[in-house]
Write a structure and sequence with these properties.
It is globular and about 40 Å long. The protein is about 30% helix and about 10% strand. It has about 80 residues and is an alpha+beta fold. It is built from two helices and two strands; from the N terminus they run βαβα. β1 (about 25-30), α1 (about 45-60) and β2 (about 60-65) form a beta-alpha-beta unit. The termini are far apart. It has a two-stranded parallel ribbon with strand order 1-2.
Length: about 80
């Protein structure tokens, strides 16, 4: 993707990083993990991730989910 001129960034909400602002990206790709989308008690950062996803959808961004990412999109 970088070779084609796209800018990529990674946000690790599970590591305490802050979500990006909706106007700072065109696509949101949400990756997988071993937990469930319903494990907010064990993984409180899932709430912030679901809010990020909901904001992206509301802003008509392209949102793609892989494995857990797809579950989070459905939950958001």
């Amino acid at each position: 993707m970088r070779a084609r001129g796209h800018v990529l960034s990674v946000t690790r909400l599970y590591a305490g990083e802050q979500p990006p602002s909706t106007d700072s990206y065109d696509w949101l790709i949400v990756m997988g993990g071993p937990m469930s989308a319903n494990d907010e008690g064990e993984h409180p950062w899932l709430r912030a991730e679901k809010r990020l996803i909901a904001d992206a959808i509301e802003a008509s961004k392209v949102v793609v989910g892989i494995c857990l990412g797809a579950q989070l999109i459905a939950s958001a």
